[in-house]
Every structure is written in C-alpha cells, then in structure tokens.
Amino acid sequence: MIRALLGLITALTLVVMTCGDLAAQKSAPILSGPLAKLDIKPAQIDTVGGTARGTLTVAMHFALDPGWLDPLEHSYAVTQQMYDYLVHDAMIKPMPHAYVTYGLAEQAELAADFRRAAFRLRPGLKFHDGQPLTTADVKWTYENFKGAYAKLFHDKLEHVQIVDDRTIVFHFREPFIDFMDLYNGGVSGIGWIVPKHYYEKVGRDGFKARPIGAGPYKLVSQQAGVQMVFEAVEDYWRRTPATKAIVVKGVRDLTARMAGLQTGELDLAFGMTGKLLSRVMADPNLRWDPNFTGPWWLMFPGYNEPGSPFRDKRVRQAVSLAINRPFLAKQETQGIGKPWGNWISPENRDALQGPEAPVPEYNVEKAKQLMAQAGVPDGFEVEYLPFPPYFDMGERIITDLRSIGIRGKLQSLEGPAFRAKIGQGRKGIPGNRTIVQNIDPRAGGAKANVAVYTVCGSPASFVCEPPIEALWTKHQASLDLAERERLVKTIQRIVLDEYYFVPIYWNPFVAAVGPRVLPEGKGFHRYWDTLNAPYPWPWEVWEVKADR
Amino acid sequence: MRKYVLVRALYSVVTLWLLVTIIFGLVRLTGDPVGMKAEAGADAAYVAQLKQNWGLDRSLPRQYLSFIGNLLRGDFGHSFEKSLPVRDIYFERLPNSLKLGFAAFVISIVLGVPLGMLSALKMHSWWDNAGKLIALLGLSMPGFFVGLVLIIVFGIELGWLPVLGKGRSAFVASEPATWVTFWFRDWGHLAMPAFALGWYFSGAMLRITRSGMLDVLGSDYIKLVRLKGVPERMVIAKHALKNSMIPILTFAGLNLLIMVNVAIVIEVIFNWPGVGQLLYDGLSNRDFPMVQGVVLMSGLMIVVLNFTIDVLYGYVDPRIRLSR
Questions:
Q1: Residue ranges of the alpha helices (H) in chain B?
Q2: A422 to chain B: which residues are within 8 Å by CB?
Q3: What tens digit of pLDDT does each residue of A16-72 get?
Q4: Mean of the pLDDT values across residues A382-390?
Q5: Which residues pair with A221 in a beta bridge?
Q6: Would you call A420 and B170 a contact, using CB atoms and an 8 Å cutoff?
Q7: Which residues in chain B touch residue A65, judged by CB atoms under 8 angstroms apart?
Q8: Given CB 3.0 to 4.6 Å as the disulfide criterion, which of A96, A304, A503, A527 pairs with A536?
C-alpha cells in the first residue's frame, strides 16, 4: 500500500516537473496577427523542493573578473555566462533539455513579419533583495545594455511597450529575424535581467562589486580576481539549488589546479588538458568529462593575395591530406578528441556534421602529388601561428606538414596578442604564407561562425569570396528560416570543399571533479548536458556531499 | 641638514615622475588591449564602447595628462581586466603580499644569518662546507621547483598542508578586529609559499652574512680586540656581529621589498592572492592601469626606502650630507 502510494507521488511529481510550463503554453496570445513559429521548450520546474547542502569549490583557469557579474556589459566571451547562470536569470536560455527554453519568461511570441516580439514573465519573480522583477526591469536592461551586439539591438528597436507588470512588447524598425536567437541567454547578455532599482542606486562599480540578480545563487563576497563566494537562493523559482554554497577560485596554474583536486581543496577544475591530462585520467579519485567545445581548424590568411602558394586549392587540400588527425588527437588529448570534418561545433544548429562533413582523409602520397601538380613539389616556408598555449600541437602539425615539404616556423604569441590578431581577420596577419590554427566554440548557430570568419564585411574575416558573399547577402535578406538554414549549410559546404578552412579534431576541454561531487560514478556527466556550454551550467543542479 | 633632506626629497619626486612616465609609455608599447576583450567578430560599436570606457579613444598626451591628474588625486584608474578601481584591488591584495613577504623574510633571516655566521666562524670546516652547499642549493633551486616539491610532499602525499590560497583570514581596513587576527591565522596556508619564497633569499643571505662576517673578522680592530684578550664570545657578539650587520640589513631591506612586490611565481603556484599575481595578470592581459598601479606602488616603496636610508645616513654620518 505504502509502496503504491510512493509510486503515485513520484509519478505525480514527474508529471509536474516535465509539464511545469504547460499552463504557459495555453496562455492567451500577446500579439495580434500571424506569429512566427518558435521552438522554445518549457522550463523544467522542480516542485518537490529539497534542501541546499554542502559547498562546491570550483577552479577557473584564469583570474576572475568582477565585470562578469554585470550583464549590462556582457562581452562576447562565453565565460561570462558561467556567472550569468549563477547570479542572474534570463528570459530564455539554454538548459540541459533544450537549447532554447523558457526562463524568466513563461511565454514568448514573435510576429510573422519579425517586427514585434513579446514576452510574458512568470508570476511572483523576485530579485535577491526581495523586490519584484517586472517588465520595467526588462525594458531598462534592454535600453541600458552596452555589451556585445548592443548597437544591433538598439538600432533595430523602435520602442518598448510595457503592457503590464508581466507583459512586454518590443517593436522593431525593421524585421529582426535573429532577435530570438540573439536574445537567448546563450548568445548575448541583453536577456539576463538586471534590477533597475538596485543598479541605479549602487552604480556601475557598485554593481560589479556587489551584484544582485534573480538567479539561483547570490554573491556573498568576492576578492577581485581571486575568489567569489555564492550562496543558494532557496526560493529560486525553478528549484531549490542542491548545493548550499559555490566558491569559485581563479587558479591559473594547471599544476595548482591538479594539486587542489588531489588534496580535496577543489571539487571541480576546468582546463585539465595538456601534459597533466594523463595524470587526471589515471587518478582513481578523480573523474573527468571530455566537455567537447569546438573543432580545431587551420586558416590561410592572405591565401588570395598574389604570390601566395595557398591561392591554389590543391595546396590547401594537400595541407589537409598531410595531417594525421587520429594521431594528433591521441597525442594531444589522450585520444579523447574526435577527428572532425567541420570547423563549426556540431552542437551549433545548422552545422554540417557526420556524413555531411566527413573527416578529411590522411594521405601523404596524394598530398605530394597535389603539391607537384600545383607547381610546388619541393614545398615552401610558412609562418605558423598556433592558438596559445597549444604550441605542442602546433609543432606536431608542422611536423606533419614537413612530410610534404611545407616548412613551418612556429610563431608563439601570448593569448591576448593572438586574439587581437585574429580579431582583425586577415588584416591582422599580413603576408601570404601564414597558417593560423584556431578554435572558436561560438554559440548562436552555425550562422554566427559563418558571419564572423567567412563574410567579407566581418572584422575577423578570413575568407572573402564572391560566391559566399552572394549567398550571405541572400541569407541576410531572407525571412524564410528554412532558406536561411539551407544557405548557411551551402556556405559551409563551399568553405570545406574549397579547403579555405581545414578542420582537424573536435577539441575536448576536459574538466575534472573530485570525490565530493555527486552522484558518484558516471552520473556526473549530466552536468555537461547543456548544448554549446563549455562550463557545466545550470549550477542549481550540482550536488555535493554535505561534509563542508 | 634641512637642505639635504629637501634635495633628497626632490630627487625622489623626480624619480617617481620618471618611473610613472616610463611605465605609462612602456605598457602602451605592448599593443592594443581592446582587441583582447573584443573577441573575433566584435562589431565596431562594441570596440568603440570599450575604448571609450577605458579612455583609449583619446590622444596619448591627453591620456597621459589624465593619468597624472588622477594619480595626484590618488586614483590609479579602473582595471581593464577586473573592472574595478585599481586602488581598491591593490590595497585588498597588499596585506596578503605583506604577510607572505614578512614570513618569507623571517625564514630567510632565520636560515641565512645564523648559518652564514657559523660558516664564517668555522671556515673550511664541515659547517662551512654545509653552509656553502645550502647557499648553493638556495640560489640554484628556483622557487617554483621548491614550491612544487613542497606541494607534492606536504600537500599531496602527506596531506599536512593546504596547497591553494591564503585561507579564510582577511585584512579588512574597515574592520579593526581583522587588523591583528589576519597576521596570526591560516599559518598552514602560509607555510609552504613562505618557505619556497624565503628559501632562495636565505641562500643569498647566508652568503652575504658569511662574507660580511669574514671581512669584519679579518679587520684590524677585531685583531686589536683579540690582542687585548677579550674573550672570543665577546669579540663575536659585541664587535664582529654588530659591524657585519650593516650590509646584511641593507640587503635584507631590499629583499623584503622584492618579496612583497614581485613574488609572482610563488603566488601563481600557490594561488596566493598577492600583488605579484596582479602584476602578472595585468601584464598578461594588457591591463594598463593595473600594471601602472602595481609598478608605481612598488617604485614608491623603493623610493621611500631609499629616501629614508639617505636621510638616516645623513644623520649618522655628517660627511655624507656635506659631500652631497
């Protein structure tokens, strides 16, 4: 009898959890007229409750920036989202069960002509100070946003209409077809809602030092660059966070992170790649998740300049043929990395993958023939720019290229200098005999990567070809989502077929956890289920032993 | 004397101005910091916004004048990388560096001075050879190596000491209760980084103590004291030790400043939140205000120390103030 009753309660709980937002789906429409079809999944609300317990200590692989706590100045860097998911909450955001899910909003609509977007907030939302979160905060956040894509959002906006405390409509000057993609918390910061009353009271610096939001954790203390301590907000609307406190430390040194894991001072550490990866894998007390991010790929800046050997497609193809991808992945990642056929992460919507983008073959003889046919049988010298600090990988690729006569000279730059060069695209890397090794786990669908690297007008463009340009222009003018998807895939096809970019392998950005992280065994991999997330959010689901 | 002090003060101000100007120019030679934060594909408006936020949209002379003006008001600017005022971040970190620096300083003195003296007093003996060996090891085994060995032995294998950070104690200026407790808590966290840092300097201290002591022991007045039949213990304690301490203390003062300000490697290995890490982060990220602030504060400490020494010399030895 008791067992049956428990079974019934469990079943009911599951129904409530999975159908938590069914009510939202049945709400009255906000916008009049035809609507665009949106694929936003309901939030999974855990009504069972529970108690937050234990402390999770996390090590980032760089110094912590208090600026990450301020969504209004959200950078392009995906790292900032780690803090968004702790302190703040977004209208819509990626979660483990879907890339676009309802967050603060329980209903969203987009007019079929893409000139209006509307949201309805959940009832009873509050910031950490107990003040209600209303559409006034949503409007204020949008209007005061200064981060990545801010100009686009502001240029497109005609006005914001507050219907009531829970309903808001954005009116655009022209069709804004990418609005929902960009407004998604996984892509930009504008949808992470900031408390107007508090921000205006404490100001920009005050907010970075002591932010409050509507997220599952509130900041308790921080030492700039060193440590941030967060405490669970037990009445968070989606569920009670499982862990009572999360301590985030900036630990730049890989050896120190490894030591911290081994002594139990750390429970989770990122960036456990490189020379210590084998030790992580061999340690019986540690578990690791491959945490695939984006694929590595090679680019040829200046390929279309006069005198460049890379002007000839056969030379670019020869480069691809000369790379022993499985061996490279084995050497660099203990075999975790997967040889890959696209430069865009398969977790991105519309990215070519599998049979659409097979792994390029390894065939040195064929590569030599192509070099001979291209008139460079003896090869040539190139500058090789590896992505810092992956210099070993650069050396290995140079060794592969030497087998077909391409003699690379490794230019090791520090991370910021490399990023600054890449940010300027082919203009940042003068000369016509350079190979650049890059990686970019960018969210926002395949089109985001296409727009950055393969379109002439992008500041970081490395490919500028009339056929691609024509397709991209058509893409930008199109209001047909299926056509846009087709065009983005066609551009990827051209980039790969023409060997403008040479994909290598899908990179694991290994994270390791210690014995205090629950569940024991392999269940912890679920923390990495969110798509396009190099860090394991959402944080409210993390469980640890309650011994601290 | 007043004129002498004024001249020394003027020299100090000019030195600081030169330092400020040089560091302002040097950090800007490292390149554009905006490109680092903007990421690939950042739109021009975002880049322009960053430049404006960081004051890099103005001409260099205007940036310089604004920098000097802010400095005179005690404002080092906002960190590009850490988004908060450099002054706040620096003074939050400084007590941690002082704690580490003083602890390492004590270790270097406790190890270096007695061993150096022993080595000098028992020249060419087993003690001397042991002292020389320790000095050699101290100078040739870099701090990061010693640190890693300590971490493996005492942190991982024995599990006696924590390997990361400084512990929970914090020095908070607005909370007087922390002013004292900060220095006497979390010694477990301090032990390994302080030893790894102090180890190197103990080797140097041992050598300078030994050579200073040998110089003094070979001097005429020590010979005279011995001829007068003064017991050897008194010769060493009252006459030799006192006089040999002058170069040792000068050297130790400089060492202390170095340990406080540029213990970068040790701070990184042990994740010790000191100003050395701030400088490292600043340099790695082209955080101009942070680098300027940290270098300026280090420079200020050295200039103040030198000024103080100059003034004390002037008081102690009138020939100095008359000759300058």
A1: 2-29, 34-38, 44-54, 60-72, 86-121, 126-140, 143-150, 177-184, 187-217, 220-227, 232-234, 241-261, 264-269, 275-284, 288-316, 318-323
A2: 40
A3: 444 444 444 457 899 999 999 999 999 999 877 789 999 999 999 988 999 999 999
A4: 92
A5: A229
A6: no
A7: 81-83
A8: A527
A195 Cβ contact partners less than 8 Å away, ≥ 6 residues apart: A127, A129, A131, A133, A137, A212, A213, A214
CA distance B133 to A389: 37
Q: For chain A, what's the residue count?
A: 548
Residue contact A420–B31, C-beta within 8 A = yes
Q: A49 CA to chain B: closest CA distance, Å?
A: 31
Give pLDDT tens digits for B282-306.
988 889 999 999 999 999 999 998 8
DSSP helix/strand/coil, B118: helix
A337 neighbors A273 (Cβ within 8 angstroms): no
Q: Which of A259, A422, A458 sits opposite B155 (nearest CB)?
A: A259
Q: What are the pLDDT digits (tens) for A114-151?
A: 999 999 999 999 999 999 999 999 999 999 999 989 99
Whole-model pTM?
A: 0.88
Total length of chain B? 324
Residue A339 in tokens: 């040889």
pLDDT band, very low/low/confident/very high, at B324 (cuts 50, 70, 90): low
A148 touches chain B (CB under 8 A): yes
Question: What's CA A424's distance to the chain center, in Å?
Answer: 21
Residue A387 has pLDDT above 90, yes or no: yes
Distances (CA, A) of A233 to A134, A238, B233: 19, 11, 69
Which of A503, A494, A462 has its CA nearest to residue A361? A503
Interchain pair B269, A255: CB under 8 A? yes
